[in-house]
Amino acid sequence: MDLxxxxxxxxxxxxxxxxxxxxxxxxxxxxxxxxxxxxxPGLGGIAGLSLLLPFMFGMEPLxxxxxxxxxVAVVPTSDTFASVLMGIPGSSASQATVLDxxxxxxxxxxxxxxxxxxxxxxxxxxxGAAFLTFFILAARPIVLLFQTPELLMITIFGLSMVGIxxxxxxxxxxxxxxxxxxxxxxxxxxxAGALRMSTYDMPYLADGLKLVIVGLGIFAIPEIIxxxxxxxxxxxxxxxxxxxxxxxxxxxxxxxxxMRCSLIGVTVGVIPGLGGSVVDWIAYxxxxxxxxxxSQFGSGDVRGVIGPESSNNAKEGGGxxxxxxxxxxxxxxMAIFISAVAxxxxxxxxxxxxxxKNNLDFTYAIVWLLALANVVGTLICIAASGGIxxxxxxxxxxxxPFLFMIISFAAFQSRQxxxxxxxxxxxxxxxxxxxxxxxxxxxxxxxxxxxxPAETYANQAVQIANSRFRxxxxxxxxxxxxxxxxxxxxITLLSVVIGLRQAKNIMAEGEVQSGSKRAPLVFLLAxxxxxxxxxxxxxxxxxxxxxDRVFPIFVATIGLIxxxxxxxxxxxKPETHPLFSDREAQEADLNVYGLWQTLVWFAGLLLLTALxxxxxxxxxxxxxFMLVRAQKSVGFAALYTAAGIAFICFMxxxxxxxxxxxxxxxxxxxxxxxx
Length: 675
Hints:
By secondary structure, this protein is mainly alpha-helical. Helix content is 72%, strand content 1%.
């Protein structure tokens, strides 16, 4: 009864909060933005939330949450367009949809496939929201018992899941997570302020790397570059055909399959680190295994669309469980979500046990917003299907400069420093190489996000444990090995054992063919060099700041051991082994342009920005790109450039933001927006 007495008022308050007109308006805006992001392959919830991050500073908490939840909820629905119409996974959560959705589109049944997918997505999203509602109610008393050792242990559990279940080669996932953790330690240490992998001669790194730049660099830029290199329209099938009601009837006929796959999605979403990388394949496997007639799977069976689409929306509700309850991201998008929540308002809202204790109404507002966003998103997807289908027939060369303009502007807002763009370009290059050689980017990002809490919890736990041991040995043991910690240790060990057995069947970012030994080996050596440098740099921290060297040394040691195991395996394994995955070999026939001749455009934008400022550089970049790379007329290039500059200036004036200055601005007083 006490639970109901606490929860029912919070549920009622949350319901009243989300029914406000301005909150609903922000939710619809977030849904529309998520729809626009999700329709482009690769630009999923991580890239979308990364774009929103700079706008979250000081935003009213409820409207900020509505905007983010609207985007997160609809991306798994809208990415179905790319999977069905293009045969390209819209995101890692829609890979399995391609197997039957794309063959249906080729048969002229695209509308049937999309409507079945939207109905399944709506149902899965509502199941996820319902599960989250009751789970929070039941779990809240337990979560409030969590102290520092418990929070440290669940952080370790999240990292273990990310590392083990990140791809076919489990050790690559672990090393990727370690690399992300080490990137998260760059700058001043939390305990004593010692510098790590940075220097005061370069103040930018002393403050560490910002999540908005890491998120955009690791995920958005690699996908934009990959699509741009192919230099073609996203899809050559703008016609949907008929069968909208037939798809809904298909879902109803398979409603129990949809229910089972939704529960699979919720369960997988709850486990930190799994998320969209595997949920659709698990659901698709269940769909095939439980079907009596398996003959049509892979050639256009609507059940192959309903199963994965039910699970990938439900997993968003499940993914919010570790995110809201423990502050542990259940997926890459949830990692961005955690940091964005901290930026809202005065920073008083923080996901985790404190949110359940102090802001239960906001917790349930997120749940209600998730359910409402699924309904709104599904309706908009159905209404906008015809226009979106035509949008996918536009050459990506016309879209890429606009997307890169938005990304550059978003990255610069983190510190208003030209080095923001240098960091974006550098981390983008790392993201391109990780994507090419099938190194888990979600593992890297979640490692980066968990770096600070993992180090903080570890230091606090050690300090408190030492004081308890001084009082008595039994009291120290009781603090470290509480019943919850023991349960979490057992769960973590089981997850590692099971994960090692299943890792070979998991393709975190799709199947990648093997190439030659040389390129993957060179990349591994570069990773080893960075981890080794991080170890050496941390070891040089003096004794009076020893607390700041323990964590990076420990992580670097694990990373070096894993990397050396990979090195030995590469020496003895044949080139056909998954260790040598290389998308460059796989996509060689698709790529019209080389990597470096594509990157030089964006390097030129960066260099010109440093000399003449962002607006002048962007004007030259957009006009030249349209004229030379997109091969458009002078008139079209001028019109495109004018529209792009007008849009970015409108955004800057609306948000009261400036643009990156260059050397020209330091010697000449220029009017806005040129200054």
